[in-house]
Amino acid sequence: MLFRSHRYGRLMIRTLLLFGLCFSLMGQGKQPSVEDTIMQLEREWSAADIAKDAATLDRILADDWNETDYEGHLVTKAMVLSDIKNNKTEVSTITNNDRKIRVFGNVAIVTGRDTEKSVDHGKETSGTYVYTDVFLNRNGKWQAVQSHSTKLQ
Question: What is the C-alpha to C-alpha distance for residues 112 and 2, in angstroms, rounded to an integer?
Fold first, then answer.
């Protein structure tokens, strides 16, 4: 009888360990939510602005991306990448607040507020901005396609 209960105990331990391993492996393959993916892209975008990382911006911004900036000017992806290459902009800090993400199928809309220390084409542009970024999932890849910002006084 002792032999059987000992053997049963080992079998139970092995079974429990196997179930535990299966559940932990299932958790590793979990895909991030759309909101998590977009939030990560927003963080990378801010970091790329500070680091002047054109490659990251090129990946995040769709080729047809544009922005209506706080002065009402249309800014294209090509303009942003050129300004980085030619050292026309300087962003030293960005603090993001109140970021909200809404997902509608293959479209995600981000609204938020940031406070930054920045210079654009020699003009001081530091301040607090509210913004909207629109992301589109094309062929399984999320990219920003439209942005708008307003500087708060």
Answer: 66
CA-to-CA distance for 47 and 28, rounded, in angstroms?
27
Q: Which residue has the tokens 């535990």?
A: 20
Amino acid sitting at position 77: K
Q: Report the Cα 14 to chain-centroid distance in Å.
A: 42
Evaluate if pTM is beyond 0.85: no
Q: Are 96 and 106 contacting, i.e. CB atoms less than 8 angstroms apart?
A: no
How far apart CA 133 and CA 21 sit, in angstroms, is 41
pLDDT digits (tens, 9 = 90+) for 121-147: 999 999 999 999 999 999 999 999 999
CA distances from 109 to 43, 69, 101, 144 (A): 15, 17, 6, 9
